[in-house]
Design brief:
Strand content: 15-25%
Largest sheet: 7 strands, mixed
Distance between the termini: 37 Å
Order of helices and strands: EHEHEHEHEHEHHE
Number of helices: 7
Structural class: alpha/beta
Length: about 210
């Protein structure tokens, strides 16, 4: 079986301070995954610039010229995190077998991506990254987060508890997601509705 082509999609808004470290860590991870036979040499990292006002796009553009793993997508204006993420997913799907989304600050543990890929090789088409605990959050944040999930549950929205947008999706799952034509999609609510075989991977959130 051929190694799958992976694209890691990162929405970016004014991320010039963290971007150099993020690029360094993700390209090293990608090299390891290629060497270990988890993914194809054609795998990439796609940074989506969501109308940044700093030097984010300049950093992405220059890195894309010299780094075979880095690609950039520049949006004409700020459209918000979810729409920027969707733009990245829909762009990446045409050249990928699976796509991982992660925030630019890398507070989600990138080492977990290896576990995502193990699940993908086992036949799972959606793999959710789920935080083990929220003890680093303030009491207010923990309380409001719990209240949010309870409200969503009462509204009949099937959310994965303690999951944000750190996940793996197969090409087929993203193609199905693209069929939704609603404006301002709430991805955490929509993705579980797609109906594909899914699993979760638990991790500790990092502080950076």
């Amino acid at each position: 079986m051929m190694e799958p082509v992976l694209t890691i999609v990162i929405p970016c808004y004014n991320e010039e301070e963290v971007l150099p470290v993020t690029i360094f860590q993700l390209q090293n991870l990608l090299k390891e995954l290629i060497t270990d036979g988890f993914v194809s040499k054609q795998s990439k990292i796609l940074f989506v610039d969501d109308g940044s006002q700093d030097h984010t796009w300049e950093l992405i553009y220059k890195e894309g010229l010299r780094n075979e793993f880095v690609r950039g997508l520049k949006l004409s204006k700020n459209v918000g995190h979810q729409n920027a993420l969707l733009a990245g997913l829909f762009t990446a799907k045409d050249h990928s077998d699976c796509i991982v989304s992660i925030d630019a600050d890398l507070q989600d543990d990138i080492k977990v991506i290896r576990e995502f890929l193990q699940k993908f090789h086992e036949g799972y088409e959606i793999v959710y990254g789920v935080r083990k605990r929220r003890d680093t959050d303030t009491l207010f944040k923990r309380t409001t987060a719990l209240g949010f999930y309870k409200i969503m549950e009462k509204m009949g929205v099937d959310l994965v508890f303690n999951h944000a947008d750190f996940r793996l999706m197969s090409k087929r799952a993203v193609q199905e997601l693209e069929r939704f034509r609603e404006v301002n999609l709430f991805l955490r609510g929509i993705v579980p509705l797609l109906g594909f075989r899914s699993d979760v991977v638990y991790y500790d959130r990092l502080e950076r």
